[in-house]
Every structure is written in C-alpha cells, then in structure tokens.
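Throughout our pipeline, every protein is held as a single compact record rather than as scattered files. Nothing more is needed to write down the fold, since each code stands for a local backbone conformation. The record that follows is passed on verbatim for readers who wish to inspect the format.
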Amino acid sequence: MSNINMSSGGLPETILDDEPETARLRLAEALALEGDSRRDAVAAVVADHPRFLDGWARLGDLARDPIEAYAAYRVGYHRGLDRLRQNGWRGSGYVRWQHETNRGFLRALDGLGRMAGTIGERDEEDRCQTFLLQLDPGWNSSQLED
C-alpha cells in the first residue's frame, strides 16, 4: 500500500497507515494510569506491538532516565523510517503532524533530538531538528501537548 500524495508545493507527502486498533486502545488505557504503573503498562503495549510507533514515543516520554528515553525514541525513529519506506517514502517529501497516523514517528524523532541534546550529542540534536522541519515545515514541538 502506498500513501503518497503530491502536495500543492510539488513535493510528495507520505501518510502512514493506521496502527492496530487494539494497540491504540491499550495505549490510551495505559496512559490513563498513574505513576510507575503507567510506564509499565505502556511497556507492555510496546512488547505486544513492537512496530507501534506512538507506543515507543510514549515509552520514551515515560522513561526513568535520559538514556532509557534516548533508546526508546531511537527505536521508534528507526521503526518509523521502516514504516515510511513501506508506505512509499523515498527519503524526501513531507510527513506532516496534521495526519494523526504520522504523529508517533514525529514524536519519536522530536524526543530523539531532545534526548540527544540532553546527553551532549549536539550534532544529532541539530540533525533531528532539521529533519523535523524538512518533514513538516510548520513543525512546532508545542503541538506534542495534545
């Protein structure tokens, strides 16, 4: 299945396919929990659905330390690149936040950049920020607060 469309600007736009409904429902339930049980429940969702991009991004958000967060975001980012390629992305073009199915990948990429900065990997932090703006020129990390 290919979900590539030509944008009005001429560059292709990739929209990722839907995540499994059971994974989305379980993630919503897990995120409604409090404290350590929230992180454990999100980790269980990811263990059962290891290709679930938003699961990896949310696991990064709930990490116990910057290295754990960096690792979770990196997995989400790389699995996201795989998914983008499976959906026809060829290394350029838009992957916009406005499409909910793209949000897990963009959250993971944003988190990876933030954690790269936290652990002193400034060049990776810069690359991630540049990539986000290439994928979605209107990128603003405040949109993550949805």
User: Anything to note?
Assistant: The chain has a mean pLDDT of 93. The radius of gyration is 15 Å. The chain is about 60% helix and 5% strand.
